[in-house]
Amino acid sequence: MSWEHWWVRVTVIGVGRLGEALVAGLCRAGMPADSITVIGRSVERTFEVAHRHGVRVADLRDLPDECDVLVVAVKPQQIEGVLTGLGSALHGSTIRPIVLSVVAGVATDRIEQFLPSVVPVIRAMPNTPMTVGAAITAIAPGAAATEHDLRLVESVLGSVGEVLRVSEDQLDAVTAVSGSGPAYVFLVAEMMIDAAMSLGLDRVTADRLVIGTLAGSSAMLGVGDVDPVELRAAVTSPAGTTAAALEVFERSAIRRTFQQALTVARDRSLELSGMMRPPLERISADQN
After folding, report:
1. Which of the 8 DSSP states describes residue 207?
2. Is-contact 129 222, C-beta < 8 A?
3. CA angle at residue 257 from 253 to 259, to 5 degrees?
4. What is the pLDDT of residues 15-39, one digit of tens each?
């Protein structure tokens, strides 16, 4: 997708994997590099990311004068310190960017307590396929976010994949399903490659077969409204090789394992949310 909203200026706080994935995705989509700024804890890492993608560098204490969307992409354990600094910077500034948080488990009302009341907050859960323009991202607005704010964020995130709106109380489940989801797929690939090699295939051949199978199967899932149950049934001949393999999966309670895994991921997101409880008096919403 070519970048149509060339006038949007994006600043990303956090240059870890997710933060860089967003920067890389925006650049890949055609957003001008001089419209993107990165801010990070490690000077070396920040300049490394900036050099790799040709984007600008700033400091949390000296935010860019022109910033439309300010993405917070740090670890949950780091966000309180970042928001404290960000709140101080915004209270002393005339800029009023949309604060877009991609931090798992931290609710919009917690973020808003650190910021001027006029600053809109939107919470999002993207995933790493944004680096290849294939992300799926769910967003939910905070108290001050308007329809215009949501559309602007959708235009930014839409350049790196698909965007859908959900209620904020669904975002912990979204985190478990699509936020962490790529890791589940990569684990399946890893296990299939190991199993293929145990059957006598060399690593190169196993890699090509498994990765090609997963990529092709994913492409089939994305065509039309075909149900995965129907696709699976179409591959499964009675008493055939596929049926024999699927029977082993079912006997191993793989469905229950997936349910347990996603539930644990959802609960961890909720747990992280409980860890982030700044006192209301830290920054008054009236200090604009």
Report:
1. H
2. no
3. 120
4. 998 899 899 989 988 889 999 999 9
Q: Which fold has domain 10-167?
A: Rossmann fold (3.40.50)
pTM as predicted: 0.85
Rounded to an integer, what distance in angstroms lies between the CA atom of residue 117 and that of residue 256? Answer: 44
Sequence-distant (6+) residues with CB within 8 A of 258 are 184
63-79: b (≥16 Cβ within 10 Å) or e: bbeebbbbbbbbebeeb
Look at the chain and count its residues: 288
The CATH superfamily assigned to 181-271 is ProC C-terminal domain-like (1.10.3730.10)
- Tally of CA atoms within 13 A in the half-sphere of 148 that contains its CB: 5
Ranges for all domains in the chain classified under CATH 1.10.3730.10 = 181-271
Residue 6 has pLDDT above 70, yes or no: no
What Rg do the C-alpha atoms of the chain give, in angstroms? 21
- How many angstroms separate the CA atoms of 134 and 116, rounded? 34
How does pLDDT run across 175-221, given as a tens digit for each residue? 999 999 999 999 999 999 999 999 999 999 999 999 999 999 999 99
Residues 6+ apart with CB under 8 A from 187: none
